User: Fold this.
Amino acid sequence: MKFDEFVEKVKAMGGVDTDGYYGKQCMDIYNYYCNNVLGVQNVGADCAKNILKNQNILNAVEVIENYPEFIVQKGDIVVFRKIGQYGHVAICLGPADINGYKCIEQNWSNTRQLEEVWHDYLNYNPIFLRPKNQENIKDNDVPYIVQVTADALNVRTGPGTNYPIASHKNHCIRDKGKYTIVEEKGNWGRLKSGAGWICLDYTKKI
Assistant:
């Protein structure tokens, strides 16, 4: 199952209860995602924070401790280790930036419901699991061409608003032209020209 299909399906179902216990819990959508998108079975644990003890999922992901420049990618699994007694787990939707990221998850608000929630990187001691197999997650392979839709779009030295605007003469795109993206990080794309990074929220793929 492709990632976008997974999101559409769980939304259409109003969430998932894979084990039949306690309603729609965070572990249910995590198990459903791992089984159907990643193709990894037997990834469960007695609670979310103990996912990190399951060797089946650890074999299938890169474990990433949070660091200042880290940016979540679509399809990453985030385990919040310091929230309540059991922790919490969510699936990152993307796009994201240095300030925060959006997840699809269950029971964040103790409602046993499917939710989309914005998180920052500072609270609840998150750790990130990036699937090694990205086949069902990636939208498009780079490079690809985008057209700028904003009247003025800053070019930055890195993938986020915390990076300074580039100092060269092409630091701001005003022509609504077409540009080639050769790398993605969250909702930021690196320009083939080497000029820097632009926010892809203000572009459209062509």
About this structure: DSSP finds three helices and 13 strands in the chain. The chain has a mean pLDDT of 93. The CA atoms of residues 171 and 185 lie 19 Å apart.
